[in-house]
User: Fold DNA-binding protein s1fa from Stylosanthes scabra.
Amino acid sequence: MADEDFDFTDKVPPSFDRAGNSASQGLNPGLIVLIVVFGLVLVFLVGNFVLYTYAQKNLPPRKKKPVSKKKMKRERLKQGISAPGE
Assistant:
């Protein structure tokens, strides 16, 4: 038994071969999740921007709510103009 040499210097178990052979391992799973989430957020923001610019160009402006007669009367009194019928 003493004459047999166990020379394992050139053989590394696969679980410890992280630093030496990173090309065959692929991308880090955390990095893949980060890229996917960032991509979805980017698509969401770009889509919102495109819809907003489309709406600004093509949709008519919103109608204002009609002012009530009571508010019109109050505004006229503030300006010093008497409301008709008084």
